[in-house]
Amino acid sequence: MYARCTVNEYNNGLKQAKNVLTYPTGAAGKRFGTLYQAINTHIPDATSFYFQTFQYLNECVYQIIFSPGFIDIYLEGILIATVSNTLTALQIYNQITTVLGPIFRVTGAGFKPYDLTRSANSPVTITSISPNSFAVTPATPFTAGQVLPVQFSVTGGTIMQTTPQIAPGVTYFVGTQTTDTVVLFSTPEAAKGFVQNGILADGYAINGTGTGTTSIIVLNTWTFAHSTFKNLPVYDFNGAVTSYDAITFTPSAVTGAAVTITLSAPYALLTSAYVGGAFIGAGGTSRITAVADTSHFTVAVQKPFDSTAAIQGSLAFLAEPAWSDVRGWPQVCSSYQNRALFANTASLPNGFYASVINDYTDFGDLTTDDDDAISWYPTSDNMNYIRFIVPYRSITVHTNTGIYSSPLSDVAAITPSNFTLQLQDSTPADVLQPVAIDNQVVVLSGDDAHQMLWDGINNAYTSNIVSVINEQTIRNPVDETPYSDLHRAGSRFVFIINENGTMAIFQTLLSQGVSGITPQMMEQSYGNAGFVQTASSSNGRAWFVVERQIARQTSPVAITGFSSNTLSAVASNLSQTVPTAITFTTTGSLPISSPQIVIGQYYWAIGVDSDTFKVYTDQPDAINDDSPITFTSAGVTSNVLPWPPETVFTLEELTKKTFLDCAVYYFGSPVSTVTTGELFNAQDVKMVGDGYGFDAPAENNIGGTVTFNAHGSTVAVSEAYIGFPIDTIMEPMPLSISSGPSAKEANLTKPINIRFVRFMFNNTIGGTINGVPIALSQFADVPIGEPPVPQRGIFEMSIFNGWDDFNNPIFTIEHNDPFDIQLLGVFYSVETS
Q1: Planar angle of CA 92, 97, 100, nearest 5 degrees
Q2: From residue 109, how far is each of 113, 390, 402 by CA, in Å?
Q3: Residues 545, 49 contacting (CB under 8 angstroms)
Q4: Cβ burial, residue 539 (10 Å; 0-12/13-18/19+)
Q5: Predicted pLDDT at 126
Q6: Considering Cα of 647, then 648, then 652, then 656, what sign does the dihedral take?
Q7: Tell me, what's the pLDDT at 10?
Q8: Above 90 in pLDDT, residue 815?
Q9: How far does Cα 785 stand from its chain's mean position?
């Protein structure tokens, strides 16, 4: 009888699951791959940058990388703008951001909030057209190879004629063909397909220039400036320090925009710091607009005073702005119900603030209309400071002591009169902002992952630890993001990046009782690679910043001597423990060796000392000190060129189109050699070309190109992916079968031995079990000369071992081919007596 095997069974049933994701319908399969986008040259190190996406209205998703001095703005992984900033590395790494419509807001420690905004470039006139593109005047307004949002305007007649027809005021996207010629598309994805691979299928047809003058307006001017505020919240910082209770305050009028308030005695703390603050008393509410001296200040009355009689200080409220350069600016931001949210200043770490509805600049909290601003200061039996704000069913506010929530029983919008923050749970968010996914809030506290679930019966949130069974997968987390795969049923994930470069993926589907965590990692044959930060978008896409090491050539070093198995090059300084990729050049003759070294191929070197090194034909030999190349000559005027690994930071996008990491995509005329740049220098890579799988050994990947080669002959391909293999390992838990009757059993049989084990696979190409290749088709059923087709079937292994030999059976399924593998189940044939 078949039964649905859910994610929980695979999480509990796999002893080892590396680079594995499970399917709620019942399978364990290979994780997604990543597509290479760009190398960011401004990131100094893994703890000095910040990465996030910016959903700009309903138009597109930008990828934003902050680093000291720079804000790099990408669209579809292509750098389109760079803006300067003055933030420090620590401020950038710890900043918190939120999206407020067309505003990307930034907060953090030690600076006033910033807004990153986009505006229009100057219009340029369309002067000529072709069936697929159009040119503009003045010349060179574009950078070739970019994807840019644009709008059109027309004067003196009708707009340029296209199919489909464009309209003024609507945002489109262009792929910039040259500095003055572009191709028009409706989506940024289609525009990227053109600029990177020449795909015109989704482009607009250009039919005519129209009867008027059509201008194109590029929307790509970016500004990073301090947030502006109409009104600030207020707070009485000094009332408890130097009381003004004994002083009287006399207004010169009961209403007006410039009413003078006179103090009966000087109040030494009354300075210009009070401008923007508030004075409240005798039924009146006012905002301070100027301070003349310690005995006089001017206010704009918002609610009239009862009279012009003196107001006793003990019955009055005199406050400064809650935020300022002296008192501190909010370090936490978010948004909820069309309100901008702020929290945590240096002076008021437990302060929480919500703006006026539909006005992200107004935080004036002097009035209490339903749409007015809100200020709140949650407390408990300890000092509270707010770390994060996560909007969900309510506003969840995460402090050092636990989780607070705005009202849960009231379905109406929050207002100044109904707002509170009530403690829900004592689980504090540690260093990462919690995320909302799949009807829950996932909170990381140390190395523990908690689900904050809505309990409708008790009208509260309840906490549940979900990382116990997979506790080894989360270690010093440094980033997390929610991700919903819109093309895979029931897939809701949280990507958790660890300090060591691994990633734990928490998979959840509450409605089916599904949850589990699996470890993911990036690997490469030369140097190291690891996840650093991640970000996602609501349209089912995700990106990663990956720290990789790539081989880069250093200065050549002259070869000066040799011995039977070494070469000498003064100050070559090659590592004595880790193999270094090297090449050779000469203007005379190369050293004579066995096997003979050649130009245009990588070799591998291990230093003996700072001037001497051994040479090997491949990396495994160098690691094992096996079969070093022997020399009988040092050659004439020859050099060794070291290619040590150098750290770079790559932007890569999650993809289901290929099962490779950092994959470079090629589409075009059939070629056997594809240019990849420096990414794969001295790296073993896997490739898919027109559906076939290929290997490209490290020794041949030189000069920024890879060659498709099969059985010693080059192969021309028209569509290809080239990247690092994803090493997937699945090891089922040991078999457990009752071994006879006990006090609670009535079995009349006991297992004697295991005769067969059957592995059921789906959508699978390649892989091994205990080193034996997985074959799901008979040899006669495999079409010769056609690309491999994903197979569904059963792979059977004959065991015929005694039961005692299989108390702990181990079957290791490994897969590093550039294809998918999906394990549906493991079935045993057991002989009993």
Answers
A1: 145
A2: 9, 19, 21
A3: yes
A4: exposed
A5: 96
A6: negative
A7: 61
A8: yes
A9: 40
pTM equals 0.93
> Among the listed ranges 41-45, 302-306, 607-611, 773-777, which one has the minimum average pLDDT value?
773-777
Other beta carbons within 10 Å of 480: 23
Please, which contacts does 447-456 make with residues 24 or more away whose CB atoms are closer than 8 Å? 447/471, 447/474, 447/475, 447/476, 447/477, 448/474, 449/474, 449/494, 449/496, 449/506, 449/517, 451/508, 451/515, 452/396, 452/403, 452/424, 452/425, 452/427, 453/510, 454/393
Tell me, what's the pLDDT at 139?
84
Instruction: Please name the helix (run of DSSP H) or strand (run of DSSP E) that holds residue 170, with its range, or none.
Output: none
Rg from Cα positions in the chain: 33
Smallest Cα–Cα separation from 116: which of 206, 212, 227, 254? Answer: 227
* 199 vs 23: which has the higher pLDDT: 199
Contacts of 491 (CB under 8 A, 6+ apart): 24, 484, 485, 507, 509
pLDDT band of 300, cuts 50, 70, 90: very high
Contacts of 44 (CB under 8 A, 6+ apart): 67, 68, 89
CA distance 709 to 114: 53
Rounded-to-10 torsion of CA 387, 277, 263, 280: -90
pLDDT band at 811 (very low <50, low <70, confident <90, very high): confident
DSSP string, 647-689: EEEEEEEEESS-SEEEEEEEEEEEESEEE-GGGGTT--EEEEE
Q: What is the pLDDT of residues 99-136, one digit of tens each?
A: 999 999 999 999 999 999 999 999 999 999 999 999 99
Q: How far apart are CA 522 and CA 536, in angstroms?
A: 19
Closest Cα to residue 826, out of 754, 757, 737, 728? Answer: 757
pLDDT at 198 over 70: yes
Candidates 1.20.120, 2.40.10, 2.30.30, 1.10.10; correct CATH number of 236-321?
Answer: 2.40.10
How many of the other CB atoms lie within 10 Å of CB of 156? Answer: 9
The owner of tokens 């007596």 is 833
User: 352 with 378: CB under 8 angstroms?
Assistant: yes
Pairwise CA distance, residues 120 & 105, whole Å: 19
Pair of tokens at residue 522: 């990036």
Query: CA 126 → CA 154, 169, 516, distances in Å?
Result: 10, 16, 55
Distance CA 434, CA 59 (A): 27
* Element (DSSP H or E) covering residue 415: none
Least confident interval from 469-483, 750-764, 783-797, 801-815: 801-815
User: Residue 269 and residue 482: Cα distance in Å, rounded?
Assistant: 48
DSSP string, 202-254: TPPEEEE--SSEEEEEE--EEEEEEPP-SB--EE-SSTTTS--TT-EEEES-S
**425-473 tens-digit pLDDT:** 888 888 899 999 988 899 999 888 898 887 777 778 888 888 776 778 8
**496 and 452 in contact (C-beta within 8 Å)?**
no
Nearest of 342, 338, 393 to residue 371 by alpha carbon: 338
Which one-letter DSSP state was computed for residue 90?
Answer: H
Contacts of 689 by beta carbon, 8 Å cutoff, 6+ apart: 708, 715, 717, 719, 720
Q: Are 205 and 163 in contact (CB under 8 A)?
A: yes
Distance CA 188, CA 176 (A): 12
Each residue's pLDDT tens digit, 571-605: 999 999 999 999 999 999 999 999 999 999 999 99
Q: Which position has the higher pLDDT, 346 or 742? A: 346
CA distances from 141 to 138, 177, 181, 604 (A): 7, 12, 9, 47
Domain ranges (residues) in the chain: 124-218, 236-321, 553-643, 657-725, 729-832
Residue 8 — pLDDT band, cuts 50, 70, 90? Answer: low
User: Binning pLDDT at 50, 70 and 90, where does residue 2 land?
Assistant: very low
